[in-house]
Amino acid sequence: MTNPYRTHTCGELALGHVGQEVKLSGWVHRRRDHGRLIFVDLRDRYGLTQVVFSADRSPEAYEVAKGLRSEYVIRVQGEVVARPEDMRNPHLKTGDIEVWAGRADVLNPAKPLPFEIDIEKPVPEAANLKYRYLFLRRESAMQRLIMRHRITHWVRNFLNARGFVEIETPLLSKTTPEGARDFLVPSRNFPGTFYALPQSPQQYKELLMIAGFDKYFQIARCLRDEDPRADRQPEHTQIDMEMSFVTREDVLALLEEMLIGLVEEVSDRKLLFKPLPRIPYAEAIARWGSDKPDLRFGLELQDVSAIVAKSGFRAFAQTVAAGGQVKGIVVPGLAGLSRRELDEVNARVQQLGGKGVVWVAVGEGGARASTSHLEPEVIQAIVAQTKANVGDLILLVGDTPKTVAAVLGQLRLDFGDRLGLRDPRVVAFAFIVDFPMFEWDEERQRYDPVHHMFTRPRPDSLPLLDTDPLAAVSEQYDIVCNGLEMASGSIRINERGLQEKDMQMVGLSLEEARSKFGHLLEALEFGAPPHGGVAPGLDRLVMVLTGTTALRDVIAFPKTQRGEDLMMDSPIPATEEQLRELHIRIVGD
Ligand code: ASP
Known about the structure:
24 strands, 589 residues, 30% helix, 8-stranded mixed beta sheet
């Protein structure tokens, strides 16, 4: 039986079909009334086809066309006709032809829409999320999700071809150690107890290595009850992977092949580095002020501590004497910034946690600084060392190494944006390696794992766990791209003793470690192979491969920053009956 709705899609007809009688179904994208002729651009996922309704040739169909409005769903039947040469549209796949409707049926009308589909003007967040299914009708929104599908599909094929087994792991799980807050799900059968939704399949994938699967992957949903932060979603998707009997370089080589293949075979982006650089963490912090540097442009941080150490400008000299640093970035061509703009830079530095900025503007007649306490020869030495040219602006910040990196790292990105240096068509993937094992949590007075507590220390750092934990280096590796962290991974601890020791170092008592992670600790005693893995974030990968900076653009049904689903209207209170079944009582504040 032939399909009653269509013989072709709206993106298919070309000169080869001229003379054929066809049927198309789709949405009224645009309608132009030219008196006795009405033109309708009919749209479906595959494209647009121009349909012509003539009062003279097909009065009945013409009558239907008169009543059509935007986004009505219709079916048309008619003949494919070549457009006159001068009316052809080379930008449209079907631009050489049009369909002269002999018959038309309205399959379903549409109310006036809250925003246009055919004109891609920005839509306020509330309408965008509430009417997401309408927003997704837009060409660009739909194409991004189709691209997401192609990326996922390509990755599945890639990993399958290399022997990876795709295995699903539970959603109803137990607390996982990624460091965010867990979403809890009350158990009806066990009153007062809760499952946790997984922040990642981390423990399951390690257990699958202990089971002997050797190579695992999963396109896995990860749920983290994070505080509202710009461009975060409570659920995200990872390409979760784990492998046995591998070194760090084995994992990186595989990722490198995968990322290069994705960029070159699936996307239309330009790959900046091939092979991908492996950059030690300390070098990333020193040169770009960040462990997720945007490598598409320069403006690297330069250390002038040695020059200013002996200067009469006490703020800098004392900072260096106290073990701090003075570093700067050279912004090309901005020596002429106005006083007001320089004040804004200063305010930005303070907002980022710095004390303020000292600037040096390099002019034709010499360099001027924002403070008269910097001696001319010191200014000269700074200009010479930073290789600033006439017309450049040097921005200097003095503070603890951590604050200097944070402030200048962000300032570098700000000016990268301002100077148009962050080209979305370019992707600069790189690996960051040799991360520290721990960072010090001032508030809670304890060591936090920089990655997570299953990450292995580098062999030469093992003794440091007892003597100088903050100097210990781990087997963690990250993938970064365009200033975003795309993935973290590591070679794991696979022996119980070291795992218990590490858990205690990050603040768990032995009892807690055993009660929360007893299953894993025990599994490590049953012949756990050496293993390691990684979990590239699919959402971010799609972002960089489609050139968008908004997470929401690559997710079909995103939530607001506060985690509300405006379309489904969720979360909502549970009914009395649901609460009773779950043995839960809601208490007021
Ligand atoms: N589970 C880790 C994460 O979500 C990734 C990994 O170690 O494989 O960051």
